[in-house]
UniProtKB/TrEMBL annotation:
Upper lineage: Bacteria, Pseudomonadati, Pseudomonadota, Gammaproteobacteria, Oceanospirillales
UniProt xrefs under CDD domains: PBP2_GcdR_TrpI_HvrB_AmpR_like
One Pfam family this sequence matches: LysR_substrate
Full protein name: Transcriptional regulator GcvA
Keyword Transcription: yes
Keywords linked to the UniProt accession: DNA-binding, Transcription, Transcription regulation
Family stated for the protein in its record: Belongs to the LysR transcriptional regulatory family.
GO molecular function, one term: sequence-specific DNA binding
Species name: Maribrevibacterium harenarium
PANTHER family: HTH-TYPE TRANSCRIPTIONAL REGULATOR, HTH-TYPE TRANSCRIPTIONAL REGULATOR DSDC
Entries under InterPro entries matching the protein: LysR-type_TF_proteobact-type, LysR_HTH_N, LysR_subst-bd, WH-like_DNA-bd_sf, WH_DNA-bd_sf
Domain (HTH lysR-type): residue spans on this chain: 9-61
Gene Ontology biological process terms from the UniProt entry: DNA-templated transcription
């Protein structure tokens, strides 16, 4: 049997995908005649037909369908391997997946110091609330909420995730919030991010129960699908939000937000740095982790996870 010309085989895979020599020619930037010639050449080498040719359409033969399936998988695996090797060759690049709220409220304001510390390291940031699939999404590392951790990846806790009511100073003064029970007469702002809890009001319900408040229904307030939006609404004087440790500490220190009450809900959650175990020894990954650890300590020593202190 003659050796298979792999260039012709790839042309066949593309033509089989489209069931059209014309569309295959467009994708491969060849003429329709060149596609047809390569397919006939491949059929001659193989000794069997790949397509049934009708006047205005193509149809794969049984043999052609089997070859298209297996060849397509082969080329897909080859492309994935090349992509992995290319990324491995660019060892100064790290792709980080991070939740949008954490990215906008905590990470973005601090990237300048990262660039100063590691000017040769290129950070690619992908903001997403969905569960991380490192292989599918070609992600190197991620910052996730602890309840999403699958326990199979390398993980380092960064910051405790504690929550407490926050509002603007003007809102506090205008509504005279002196007791948690006063929340019954103001608008509550809900963070109902899909990744977090089954009920969009679970955290408010837990905080109110801890504070001994009765008769307050968080469902009558405003809801947002991202925590940073709830914080922004609080900054704009739209109501009282439950602030998360990484999302509000800067604004509290700067006086843009205030805590009307000292009661804090701590359910043992945290934000984690995670990556596949084979990646943990890569120098750029360790550089990013070390920077994150230092920034978390500087941000809130009391809330940096004990493992880092």
């Amino acid at each position: 049997m003659h050796k298979i010309p792999y260039g012709f085989l790839y042309t066949f895979v593309v033509a089989a995908k489209h069931l059209s020599f014309t569309k295959a020619a467009e994708e491969l930037h060849l003429t329709q005649g060149a596609i047809s010639q390569q397919i006939r050449g491949l059929e001659e080498r193989l000794g069997f037909a790949l397509f049934v040719r009708y006047h205005r359409r193509l149809e794969l033969t049984e043999a052609g369908a089997r070859l298209a399936l297996h060849s397509g998988q082969h080329f897909t695996q080859l492309e994935e391997l090349v992509a992995e090797l290319r990324e491995g060759a660019m060892d100064n690049i790290v792709t980080l997946s991070v939740m949008p709220s954490f990215a906008t409220r905590w990470l973005m304001p601090r990237l300048g110091s990262f660039q100063q510390a590691y000017p040769d390291l290129q950070l690619r940031i992908q903001a997403s609330d969905r569960e991380v699939d490192f292989k599918r999404d070609r992600i190197d590392v991620a910052i996730i909420h602890s309840h999403l951790h699958n326990r199979h990846d390398y993980a380092v806790p960064l910051l405790k995730d504690k929550v407490f009511p926050v509002c603007s100073p003007a809102y506090l003064q205008a509504h005279r919030l002196t007791s948690p029970q006063d929340l019954a007469r103001v608008r509550l702002l809900n963070d109902d991010s899909e990744w977090r809890f089954h009920s969009p009001y679970a955290e408010w319900d837990a905080w109110l129960a801890q504070a001994g408040v009765v008769g307050v229904k968080p469902s009558r307030g405003m809801s947002f699908n991202r925590g940073d939006l709830a914080v922004q609404a609080a900054l704009a004087g739209q109501g009282v939000a439950l602030g998360r440790t990484p999302l509000v500490m800067d604004d509290l220190r700067q006086g843009h937000l205030v805590r009307p009450f000292d009661i804090t809900l701590d359910q043992g959650n945290a934000y984690l740095f995670v990556c596949p175990k084979p990646y943990q020894e890569r120098e750029p990954v360790q550089q990013l982790l070390n920077w994150l650890v230092d920034e978390c300590r500087n941000y809130s020593p009391a809330d940096a996870c004990p493992q880092l202190l």
